[in-house]
Amino acid sequence: MHRIEGDESFYIKPRLGEYLLLNKTQGNKTNHIIFPTPDPIKGKGVLVQKTLWGNLILGPTARDTHEASTTKESLEDIMVFILSKCRELVPSFDAKETIHAFCGARAKSSTGDWILVHQWACFIFSMFVMF
Question: Which domains are seen in the chain, by residue range?
Fold first, then answer.
């Protein structure tokens, strides 16, 4: 919306993230969300968390990239990265109990932080009702 109004002071870029989901047999490894000490540049880092359904979930990564494809080798590298970082937090989980991997993109501001602005804008909404 800001670009439509001519504001070029920031842009939104995709940040890719991956999670690994472990079997419910691993859910007893923690009852809390375990975070590492945040890095001032990279953010909070990967975490270990018990899901509502009793599984253990590891991740997410945070990769700023515009490449649409990744190779098999890079996916393996990502899994190794998640497992090694999470093992520093909870050493006792069994990586062989990984049952699923998820990935997605989330919005990241070019300013590195939230953008809160007060602007007056005129938006016209039209509603069409079909019978």
Answer: 12-109 (3.30.9.10)
